[in-house]
Amino acid sequence: MSLMVMKNSPPEFKADAVALVLSRPDRTITSIARDLGVSR
């Protein structure tokens, strides 16, 4: 996620994004970021 997204995203979004990455070790951070509509 880019610094801009991290600064402007609500804490719930950040927590959900991290939980998604941790729960899906078969996927890359880049692919998850793309699905969430943010840049890595």
From TrEMBL:
<protein>
    <recommendedName>
        <fullName>Transposase</fullName>
    </recommendedName>
</protein>
<dbReference type="InterPro" id="IPR009057">
    <property type="entry name" value="Homeodomain-like_sf"/>
</dbReference>
